[in-house]
Amino acid sequence: MSVNRTLVPPRGRRGELITGRLEGHGRANYQFEPDGSPSYYLKLVTGRGIETLWGTDLERAITRSRTQPKIGAMVGVRRVGSEAVTIPAREGDRSTDRQRTFHRARWVVESVSYFAQSAQEARREVKARLEDRRAMSERPELRSAFVCLGIARAYAERHIRDPRDRELFVSRVQAVMEASVQQGRPAPQPRHADRNRSRTPRLVRDEPSQ
User: Fold this and answer.
1) 0.85 exceeded by the pTM?
2) Torsion angles phi and psi, residue 134, rounded to 5
3) pLDDT digits (tens, 9 = 90+) for 95-141
4) Which of 93, 16, 87 is nearest to 53 (CA)?
5) Are 111 and 74 in contact, with CB atoms under 8 Å apart?
6) 123 vs 68, 71, 113, 137, CA distance in Å?
C-alpha cells in the first residue's frame, strides 16, 4: 500500500484532534531551516498525507505521554491550550534589549485508543448526570435526600474535626436518607438550632451539699 507523501498545510487548532501513524519526532530548527529557531517536530502520516506539527512543548507531550507511543503507532495529537513564557532582556543585543512575553502552545500526544476510551468515559458521565437529573425531577424524595446529604457533609467538614467521627456522622445521615427514599417519602429536613432559645439555668453550688 503506497502512502501519499505530499506535504500538506499544517494543522493544530486548539481542541482539534489529529490522528495518524507516528513517523518521527525530535528536536530541529523550525521548518528545518538552517537559521530557524530551535523547536520540536512531530511527523504523522494521515489521510491527508504527511503532516508535520511544530512546537517546543511537543517534546514534553511525547516524553510524559501516558501511553508512551512508539514510532509506527497510531496516535492522536491535540493542542489543549497555551502558557505564557517570558524571555528576559539581553544586555548589548538590540534585538532582545526588552523583555518579551509570548504564548507557547501545550499539546497532548497519546495512542488513539486512549482518546477513544476518554470519549466513552465522558459520554457515560454525561449520561449518568442526565439520568440523575431526570430521576430527581421525577422523584422528589431523591432530590431532597441529595440536598440533605450535601448539607450533612458540609456541616461535618466545618464542625467535626475527627475524620472518623465525620465519616460516622455522614454514614448515619446517609442511612436515614436511604430509608426515606425506599419508603418514597421526602427526607427529613435539617433543623437549625435556635440561638435565642432560653436555657434552664443550672444550679451552681459554691459549697458542697450536706
Assistant:
1) no
2) -65, -40
3) 556 777 777 889 999 998 888 776 676 666 666 665 566 655 656 65
4) 16
5) yes
6) 25, 30, 15, 21
